[in-house]
Each structure stands twice: as structure tokens, then as C-alpha cells.
Write a structure and sequence with these properties.
Layout lengths: L15 E7 L5 E10 L2 E6 L14 H12 L22 H11 L1 H20 L20 H14 L3 H8 L1 H6 L8 H15 L3 H11 L5 H16 L2
Length: 237
């Protein structure tokens, strides 16, 4: 009994040799053969290895299989290659193929672990990829110059009525050069400047600092400029 659309194997024709070989004992071996079933043809190969990716380039069986496919199909037919043994089927998504590679194959699991370890190493090292965003501060948030910073602080201290305190704080770098604490009043500031003159000689920078301190209220910009010039002079000696 023949099912609809499925040929009966009893209708198969005798096997026709396509590629044979004779051994030293004179026996003939089939490398490839063909038999007909209904309107179709089935090609049998003694070894499927020549059809693999590694063996297809140099095997006569692979050439024979391709020629048989061309000879036994018309131009409008479609030839399908079944590679189910490699795990590739028509209903698998790309995501599933990638997941199976990384989770179900030895090479994929090794690569996955290497990627995870590298990511953790970079995360622990705190390596930054690229420059901060935004790389340039907006116009309304640009860093102030030292003079602008001193001027802004001076305005705040003047509004608070504490210009003298701000001027004394500006002398902290000079006091640090002499390993002294910052001056707490104008008398200590004057002694600090006098000690620097005794050690390094008189200089317009120190005169500018003294003039700024003696101004009422204290001229913070003049004091800051004199302090910066004195520090630069000490570093260039």
C-alpha cells in the first residue's frame, strides 16, 4: 500500500554504480551508487566525510555529488543541503544559535568566560573608555581663572565685612615656605613678610603684598598677585 505523496520503496530500481574501486584481491567496492525511487533519485556515498567543510576541496566524491545534483535537477529546482548534524535547522533564531554556541559548546563556553573575566578586570581597574562627556564644559560652567577666583572670593569677603581675614588666608602659601602657620592678624603678617625679606632680600612682590594688606579695605587682588609672584620667584631660583 502506497501513502499519498510517498513512493513505495518496492518501486526502487536496482543500484547503479557511479564510482567504484578494485582492491588487491580483485573485489569491487562502491564509492558511490544511485538508485531510483518513483520519480526521484537517491545517491549513496560510501563516506560522508568528503562532503564536510574540511574535505570538500580535495575529494572526487564531493565533485561527483555536486555533478549529480546538477544533472538530476532542472534549472528551476532548489537544492537543499541538510546540515542537521551541525545543529543548524530552519526554525532556530540567531539569538538561539549564539546562545547555544556560548553555553553548549566547549569553545563557546571558553570564549564566554574569557570575555567575562576581561570585563571584570577592566571594571575593577576602573579603566575609562573615552573622554568624559561632555569633554568641554558648557560656557556657563567653565573653570574660573585664579584671578577670577580670588576676585569672586574677595567680593564675598567684602560683602561679609571680612576683607582682612581673606587677605591673611592668602598668605598661607608664604607661611608654608617658612614652615610657619598662617598669620592670624596684621602684625603676624608683617613679621612674616619681614622674615621673608631677611632671608631672600627685598622684592617688589613682597612690597605688593604689604601694600595690599595696608589698604583699607585690604586689596585682595594685589595681595594674591604678589603672593603668586613671590612663589614663582622662589621656584625659579
Amino acid at each position: 500500500m502506497e501513502r499519498r505523496g510517498v513512493p513505495d520503496i518496492g518501486d526502487a530500481s536496482p543500484i547503479e554504480p557511479l564510482l567504484t574501486s578494485v582492491d588487491s584481491a580483485g573485489r569491487e567496492w562502491y564509492g558511490a551508487a544511485l538508485f531510483r525511487v518513483g520519480r526521484g533519485r537517491i545517491v549513496l556515498l560510501a563516506d560522508a566525510t568528503p562532503l564536510s567543510n574540511g574535505g570538500a576541496g580535495g575529494s572526487s566524491l564531493a565533485v561527483l555529488a555536486v555533478r549529480a545534483a546538477l544533472a538530476y535537477t532542472v534549472e528551476d529546482d532548489t537544492v537543499f543541503f541538510d546540515e542537521f548534524h551541525q545543529g543548524i535547522t530552519g526554525d532556530r533564531t540567531r539569538a538561539r544559535v549564539l546562545a547555544d554556541f556560548f553555553l553548549a559548546s566547549p569553545g563557546g563556553r571558553t570564549l564566554f568566560h574569557v570575555v567575562v573575566v576581561c570585563f571584570l578586570f577592566l571594571a575593577c581597574k576602573g579603566i575609562r573608555f573615552g573622554s568624559p562627556n561632555p569633554a568641554v564644559a558648557p560656557a556657563d560652567r567653565e573653570r574660573r581663572s585664579p584671578l577670577e577666583h580670588v576676585s569672586a572670593l574677595g567680593d564675598l569677603y567684602r560683602k561679609a565685612g571680612a576683607s582682612g581675614t581673606a587677605a591673611l588666608l592668602l598668605l598661607a602659601p608664604l607661611a608654608a615656605q617658612l614652615r610657619r602657620p598662617p598669620p592670624r592678624d596684621p602684625d603676624e603678617a608683617d613679621r612674616l613678610i619681614s622674615e621673608m625679606e631677611a632671608r631672600g632680600g627685598k622684592h617688589p612682590a613682597l612690597d605688593r603684598v604689604r601694600d595690599g594688606l595696608n589698604t583699607e579695605p585690604a586689596e585682595l587682588t594685589m595681595v594674591a598677585a604678589g603672593v603668586d609672584e613671590q612663589i614663582a620667584r622662589r621656584h625659579t631660583k
